[in-house]
Every structure is written in structure tokens, then in C-alpha cells.
From TrEMBL, chain A:
GO terms for cellular component: plasma membrane. This is Cell shape-determining protein MreC. One of its GO terms (biological process) is regulation of cell shape. The chain crosses the membrane at residues 12-29. Belongs to the MreC family.
UniProtKB/TrEMBL annotation, chain B:
The keyword Transmembrane applies. It comes from the Bacteria. It comes from Chitinophaga costaii. Keywords: Membrane, Transmembrane, Transmembrane helix. This is Rod shape-determining protein MreD.
Length: 294, 170
């Protein structure tokens, strides 16, 4: 016994070293429970506040670019306004009755046949990284404002990422710019409807790679790639990027290797929208129960 | 200024520099800039090893908190904090450094010794950090290039910082 104690005292430093390293390694590899257990991340009060302070300076410097993107989006949305459509000349052709879809009063609700599926919340970006292998974006919206893990996040231009964890007032978004296995976005070519999968390959934050587009697809430079709407995170037809180059890796491969220019400029993203899918639980419960019954 | 105050100020300064300057710089796919581990490199000679390691853990976890890396920085910092005394022992002359100065620096160790000391520890830090971060041994070449390129870049920063605060007497 005495020898044991002497042994421990002699190698105390080494054992302390092992203990601390084990703690660190456990922290690294417990990412599966990340959403529930992570307090050591940039969504907590201290780091969130600090990033917010810093962002006030950066925000000012990017004001012009932010304004431009918001104005562009405003003009796009203005085109969907009910008043943009000519109400009187109904005989000359069909047009979408957007009034009913957006109306809130009870009379119109009775007439309403469509169910709201997605709910958008705007959020301010307080921290953003582009130079890591796995990049995160911290936003100033949290549990108290209805942001929960596994919600899709888009900017005014296109897809940004998926919410990974949320504290009371902040949330951490796993950016599209992340080299994580199994982290891809279900995508579709807007023109020809072929399905694929978008992943980031490291390197420049302006580009990503679109996999699994079959060789018989007619892809052209400049084609828009949008979300497929199959995943429960994003509504269909939100831009992800634009085809930049199409190559074939080797002749036996059945799919193209397509390089995308990303729609979102991750270098100066200031405002994002968090998308809540109101029917998500229903969809995933159904899918899970089907899988369990198999 | 007392050693304690000096180190606290250095800690905050390096943390701010790391988070709000270096993390915003995009040099290329292979280069990431890190300078915060200089805090561990510059802790006093006579600090006992458990203290050194605990400070390493604290530094690493602080970085992890801001960068969402969960334990990766902490593992690298504890690793170099543990190995630091060995390196100093190997590099120190007969009497040891402690007799003349209290903290490692260009003046107290001599420029060659300090350069070797910083190179070894920064390199080891990057090895642990990138191995855990990338953790994809299939891509060994990418990992190696990243470690070497980032070590070189970080080392330049470390030496610049040292030269900036270089003084003959302290």
C-alpha cells in the first residue's frame, strides 16, 4: 500500500496529465449529445455578449452590403404583394391569389385551404467564421424566441446552415461551410430537376461541390441549384448555389463532379432567417414509426 | 508590474487578438493562424507542473467556448503544458534559466534557444490540434500540409509578438 502511494506521488504529474487529457478527449467525442449538453460554446452568455459587442463594430463596416441585400430582397418580396397583381382583369389569364394565403382575419381563414407549413424568424448574426474546417455562426435568437436545434437557416440570398444548439438568447448554427461527414444538403437542379447532394470540400468559402448528379443530366454553367424540399429543414426551391464548372472525375463514374458558386456570401452575412417547419414532428414521427415497424 | 498581473493582461490581450483579429483572417486552405498558446509558453519558469497543466486546460476551454470546438484546443494546450518543462530542461544551460530571469523570453533564454523552444511547442500544439480537428487519417497529406504551414505561420506571429515586447532588462 505504501509503495502504491509512493508510486502515485512520484508520477502525480503524469496521472494528472492523463486525467486532463481524458477529460478533453471525452469533450471532443461527445458531440452526439452536443445539443443537450453543450454549455461551452459561443451561445452562452459570456461569449455571446462579447461577440455581440464586437459585431456592432463589424456591422457598421458592412452596412452598405447589408443594405443592398435587404433592398434587393424587399423588391423581390414586393413582387408577391397582392397589390402588385391586377385584381380586375381576371378573364385574361390566371394569376395566383396571394391575398388569401397571407390573410389573418377570420373570414379569409374560413376560405383558406392551405395550411401554414413554414414560419420564418429573422435573426442577427453576431459571430461568423469561414476559415476553419468546421465553421459555426452565432445568431442573436434563442430558445426564448422559439429557435430550436435542427431548424434550417437561410440568408436573403440562399441557404446558410442548420441550427445546432440554442441557449436562451443565442443559437449556434452549423454553417454550410463544414467538412463534417454526413453533413450535406439535399439539392436539386432547378431546370432539369435532377437530385443531388451539396457538400463543402474545404478551401474557399465561395464554392461547394454538388455530388450524385447522373451523367445523363444536361447541366450547364450558371444553372441554379436549389433545395429539394425532401429534408424537413428547408422549404423547396431555396437557392443553394449556381453551377460554376462541370467535370467528370474518371470515365467509369456515373455522376458528375459539379462545382457550385454558393448563393450566400458567407464573408459578409449579417442577417439570416431561421425556418421553423411546423409539420416537421408529424413527418419525422411517421418516418420513424415506419422504420421501426420494418 | 507583478508577474501575476502581467500574465492576466497577456492572457486577455492574446485572447482578443486571437478571436477578433486572427480568426477573421483567411490566408488559405492550409493556413490557420494561432497565437494564444504563447500564453502557456510565457508562463513563469518556477510555476509547478500541475498549475501549468490546469492553466493550459483553462486557456484551451476558453478558446473552445468561443470557437465551438469542444475540447480540441483544451487537449492541445494541456499537452504542451505537460511537455513544456521537459523542453525547458533540455534547452537550459548548466545552472538553469531561473537564476537570471523569471519568464521565458528572447532575452532570458537567448534567441536561438527561444526559437527552438517556441518551434517545438507550437509544432506539438498544432499536431494535436489538427489531428483532433480533422480526424480523418485517410487524408494524411492534407493534415500534414496543414500542420506544417500553420506552424510556420503561427511561429512568425509568435516571434513578431516577442520582438514587439522585447526589452533588454525584463
Amino acid at each position: 500500500m505504501r509503495n502504491l502511494i509512493i508510486f502515485f506521488r512520484r508520477y502525480f504529474n503524469f496521472f494528472l496529465f492523463l486525467l486532463l487529457e481524458v477529460i478533453c478527449i471525452v469533450l471532443v467525442f461527445q458531440k452526439n449529445d452536443f445539443q443537450h449538453t453543450a454549455y461551452i460554446n459561443s451561445a452562452n452568455q459570456i461569449s455571446g455578449k462579447m461577440y455581440e459587442q464586437y459585431n456592432q463594430v463589424e456591422y457598421y463596416l458592412h452596412l452598405t452590403a447589408t443594405n443592398d441585400s435587404l433592398v434587393r430582397e424587399n423588391s423581390r418580396l414586393r413582387n408577391y404583394l397582392a397589390t402588385t397583381f391586377d385584381q380586375f382583369d381576371t378573364a385574361s389569364g390566371t394569376h395566383t391569389d396571394t391575398l388569401r394565403r397571407f390573410s389573418d382575419d377570420s373570414l379569409h381563414k374560413l376560405l383558406e385551404s392551405k395550411v401554414r407549413k413554414y414560419f420564418y424568424r429573422e435573426a442577427k448574426v453576431v459571430n461568423n467564421s469561414v476559415n476553419q474546417d468546421v465553421n459555426y455562426i452565432t445568431i442573436h435568437r434563442g430558445r426564448l424566441q422559439g429557435v430550436k436545434p435542427n431548424m434550417g437557416v437561410i440568408s436573403s440570398a440562399g441557404v446558410v446552415g442548420v441550427v445546432r444548439s440554442a441557449s436562451d438568447n443565442y443559437a449556434v448554427v452549423l454553417s454550410l461551410l463544414s467538412r463534417v461527414r454526413n453533413f450535406g444538403f439535399s439539392a436539386r437542379l432547378l431546370r432539369t430537376k435532377e437530385m443531388g447532394n451539396v457538400q463543402w470540400d474545404g478551401g474557399s468559402g465561395m464554392y461547394a461541390v454538388l455530388h450524385d448528379i447522373p451523367r445523363n443530366a444536361k447541366v450547364q454553367k450558371g444553372d441554379t441549384v436549389v433545395t429539394s424540399g425532401f429534408s424537413s429543414f428547408f422549404p423547396p426551391d431555396i437557392p443553394i448555389g449556381y453551377v460554376d464548372s462541370v467535370t467528370v472525375e474518371d470515365k467509369s463514374s456515373t455522376s458528375f463532379n459539379i462545382r457550385l458558386k454558393l448563393a450566400t456570401n458567407f464573408y459578409n452575412v449579417e442577417y439570416v432567417y431561421v425556418i421553423e417547419n411546423l409539420l416537421k414532428d408529424e413527418q419525422s414521427n411517421l418516418e420513424d414509426s415506419t422504420r421501426a415497424n420494418k | 508590474m507583478s508577474i501575476l498581473l502581467r500574465n492576466i493582461i497577456r492572457f486577455i490581450l492574446l485572447l482578443l487578438l486571437q478571436l477578433f483579429v486572427l480568426n477573421k483572417i483567411l490566408v488559405g486552405q492550409f493556413v490557420s493562424l494561432y497565437i494564444y498558446m504563447l500564453f502557456i509558453l510565457l508562463l513563469p519558469f518556477n510555476l509547478p507542473r500541475p498549475g501549468l497543466m490546469l492553466l493550459g486546460l483553462f486557456t484551451g476551454l476558453t478558446l473552445d467556448m468561443f470557437m465551438n470546438t469542444m475540447g480540441v484546443h483544451a487537449a492541445a494546450c494541456v499537452f504542451i503544458a505537460y511537455l513544456r518543462p521537459f523542453i525547458i530542461n533540455i534547452l537550459s544551460p548548466q545552472g538553469g534559466f531561473e537564476t537570471t530571469q523569471k519568464t521565458p523570453s528572447l532575452t532570458s533564454m537567448g534567441s536561438t534557444q527561444f526559437f527552438v523552444y517556441a518551434t517545438i511547442l507550437v509544432f506539438l500544439h498544432h499536431v494535436v490540434y489538427f489531428t483532433l480537428e480533422v480526424f480523418n487519417m485517410a487524408n494524411l497529406l492534407y493534415l500534414l500540409l496543414k500542420i506544417v504551414a500553420s506552424t510556420a505561420a503561427s511561429l512568425v506571429l509568435v516571434l513578431l509578438y516577442e520582438l514587439l515586447f522585447y526589452s533588454k532588462k525584463q
